[in-house]
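Reopening this ticket.

The earlier resolution said the output was attached, but the attachment link was broken on my side. Pasting everything inline this time so it's all in one place.
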Amino acid sequence: MNYVRNTWYVAGWAQDFAVDKPVGITLLGEPVVIWRGADNVLTALEDRCVHRLAPLSLGRCEGARLRCMYHGLLYDRQGAVTEIPGQDVIPPHAKVKTYPVCERHSWVWVWMGDQAACDTKLIPPAVGYDDPNYILGHGQMDYAAEARLINDNLLDFSHLSYVHINSFGANEEWARQRPKITPLENGVRVERWLQDLSGSTVRVSYSKPGERYSRYDFLLPGVLLMTGGAFPEGTAERLGGAAPDLELAAGAVTFTSQAVTPLTEKTSRYFFSWGPHVKHGDAALRDTLMGIAGKAFAEDRTMIEAQQRVIDMTPAPRIMPTSADRAITLFNQLIARRIREESNLAQAKPATGWGT
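Inline output:
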């Protein structure tokens, strides 16, 4: 699969990993089992017993170890077999791959690449649903489409004017206006002021006409972190189009964390949260926003899965970029560069095994 590996992927919501309950998930085409011990420590192993390749996610937790419930092999947190029922000698190669795993921002993250390059500082600064500054709802959605198509969708919001007519209610100004795009070390930043809100659901405090500023960072491997707020008319002109201080917003300050995880070549999982800042909303507004989000994200899925079907039927598919695709182009160039760097690093490592 053509994705960056030396990065953190969201495997699921932290609350979905209960103590002593193994969870199996496919990440970048690899079967992974994750479990939380009684000490609350998370472990991630290859979900494939060395004996007869049964999934360890159907196993039984025994303290800090996991037992395969096909023939009883017992694994420790380092992936090594520590017991084979009825057999005293355990082969030294009786072990499975381990993955660094971390819980942060209400998500469980798994590092899919070179463990020597693993760094928790590379986890994107999302906002968890337990953050006291926000009132967030959360959810997830599976796609029968490759993750790249979802990333492209999130990097170009011009589609709001057409795909989301019945949910977000954005007018055609979204499609005509080009946002400010800034390259980042691990992604891109997208900013825009929307001043003509006629026909749009965007309002200061959802009642009075105004202007809205929005900003999101789209970071490796596919994480969107978006905030924004509503301001009185004339604010964008007064600031010369610069970013405002959201502390001074007149209303509707919200935050959404979204993550796209490739499961297989043609399936993906989409995680999202959304809600208002505590100074600008309550649980009722959170529920309203999540209702809108659920409808809008279903609209995205319908379009993207249909797009995937057309791509699959198209010999040597090619796209024709437009001026709205700049963020997509920059992000995909970053992906390609990181993949090349990983490949070069792997080739530069000394060989091991016979003949060395």
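Reporter confirms the inline version is readable. Helices lie at 147-155, 160-163, 173-176, 235-238, 283-312, 326-348. Residues 201-206, 352-356 have pLDDT under 50 and may be disordered.
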